[in-house]
Amino acid sequence: MYAALWHALPGPWWVRVLILVVLIVAVLYGLFVFGFPWISQLVNPQEVTVE
Amino acid sequence: MDEATIESADETRTPTRRRITVTGVLGDLLLTAGVITLLYVGWQLWIGDLIYGAQRNATGQELSEEWEQEYAAPAPSEAASDPVPSDAPSPEAPVAVEPVVLPEPADAEVFGIMHIPRFGADYQVPMAGGVSRPRTLDPIGIGHYPGTMMPGEVGNFAVAAHRTTYGKPFNRIAELHINDAIIVETADGWYAYRFRTLEYVTPDEVQVLLPVPQVEDAPPGSRYITLTSCSPMFAMTERIVAYGVFESFTPRAAGAPAALTDGVAA
User: Fold this and answer.
1) What is the DSSP string of A6-21?
2) Beta carbon pairs, A and B, within 8 Å
3) Residue of B55, B107, B127, B133 to mutate, testing the A interface (most A Cβ within 10 Å of its Cβ)
4) Residue B84 to residues B42, B100, B203, B210, B250: CA-CA distances in angstroms?
5) Which one of A36, A40, A48 has the shortest CB-CB distance to B160?
6) ipTM computed for the complex
7) Gap between the terminal Cα atoms of chain B
8) Which residues, at least 6 apart from B225, have a Cβ–Cβ distance to it below 8 Å?
9) Contacts of A47 in chain B (CB under 8 A)
10) Contact status of B266 with chain A (Cβ, < 8 Å)
11) Most distant pair of Cα atoms in chain A: their distance
12) Is B2 in a helix, a strand, or coil?
C-alpha cells in the first residue's frame, strides 16, 4: 500500500519525501484537532462532578 | 560484462514493481492502526493537554484584557460605588468591599476566569455555567454547579473541572497548600478565596455542594468555594474535593489584588 503510494508520487525522491511530510502533517493535524477529541468522548468517559 | 550489469540493474528494480497483495495491504493497515493508537495515547497524555491548556489560558487572558478595556472606557467608579448588597452580612472576617454578586450564568455562558497562582502565573481558565461535559467542561474549562452560589455570595460557590485531559484545569488540585489563593476574576473585579482542605468522597456525595459543605441545614453565614474533580487520575471511582474560604473582593477600580501573584515564586 505505502510502496504503491511511493511509486504513485511524482518527481525525484526528495520531492516525494516533501509531499509525504506535508501529507503526514495534515493527517496528524486532523487527528489531533478533530479525530482524537471525538474518540476521547467515546472511549474515555470521565466524571468530575458529584451528582 | 555489460550484459551482466544490465541484468543486475533489472533485478534490483523488479522488487519495487511488486503487485499489491492482500497480506501486504493488511500488514500496512495493521501497522498504521498501531501507530495511530500510540499517537492517541500520546495525544491523550501530553499533546492534547498542551493544545487545550494553551487555548484555555489564551482565552482567559483575552477575556481579562477585554474586561479591563471595557472597564476603562465607561465611568470609572461604577463597579465600586454600586455593589449589590448581600442580604446576610458575613459575621466573621471583615469584608472590606461588599462583593458584587453576579446572577447565575446560563448553561455554557462564560462569567469568570479562575486564577490559582500555585498552578502557575499564567494559569487563567475560563469559567462557565453548568457542569455538563459536552457543553462546558470539555470545550470551556471550569463549570459552575447550577443552584450553588455565585462568587462572593454567602454560601458555597461550587465548580468542577477535569483533572486529566481537556487541558486538565484541576490537574494539580492535590498540590494545593493551606492558604493558597484561589481567585475568581469577573467583569466586576476579583474574588479571592483561600484554600483550606482537601477531601476524597464517593461520586454520590452531593453534600459537598451544600451552602455549608457537608453540613445539612446549617445556617449559612460564611462564603465558601468548592472545587470538585476526579480521583484517582484517569478514573472515576472517587472525587477529589478542595474547599476554600472567602477572603476579600477587589473591585476593578482598585486594580488587580496582590493575592494574584501570591507564592508564584514558590
Assistant:
1) HHHS-SSHHHHHHHHH
2) 79
3) B133
4) 48, 5, 35, 23, 14
5) A48
6) 0.86
7) 77
8) B151, B156, B157, B158, B159, B182, B184, B193, B243, B244, B245, B246
9) 203, 230, 236
10) no
11) 61
12) helix
Q: With an 8 Å Cβ cutoff, are B228 and A49 in contact?
A: yes
Contact A49 B51 (CB under 8 A): no
Give the separation between CA B157 and CA B150, rounded to whole angstroms. Answer: 5
Q: Between chains, do A46 and B162 touch, taking CB under 8 Å as contact?
A: yes
Q: Which residues of A touch B137 (CB under 8 A)?
A: 48
Instruction: Provide the grid cell at B77.
Output: 467608579
Contact between chains at B16 and A2 (C-beta distance less than 8 A) = no
* Residue A8 distance to chain B (closest CA, Å): 11
Record: contact A32-B24, CB cut-off 8 A: no
**pLDDT one digit per residue (tens) for chain B, 266 residues:** 454 454 544 444 545 556 788 998 999 999 999 999 999 999 888 888 898 999 999 999 999 999 999 888 765 444 444 444 444 444 444 456 889 999 999 999 999 999 999 999 899 999 999 999 889 998 899 999 999 999 999 999 999 999 988 889 999 999 999 999 999 999 999 999 999 999 999 999 999 999 999 998 888 789 999 999 988 888 888 999 999 999 999 998 888 888 887 765 44
Q: Is B222 left (phi over 0), alpha (psi -120 to 50) or beta?
A: beta
User: Pick from B116, B113, B137: which is nearest to B127 by CA?
Assistant: B113
Q: Is B177 left (phi over 0), alpha (psi -120 to 50) or beta?
A: beta
Q: Under a CB-based contact definition with an 8 Å cutoff, are residues B154 and B90 in contact?
A: yes
Going by C-beta distance under 8 Å and a sequence separation of 6 or more, which residues neighbour residue B30?
none
Give tens-digit pLDDT for B70-80: 888 765 444 44
Q: Which residue of B has its CA nearest to A44?
A: B234
Mention every residue, 6+ apart, whose C-beta is less than 8 A from residue B52. Answer: B165, B166, B167, B168
Q: Which residue has the cell 454600586?
A: B82
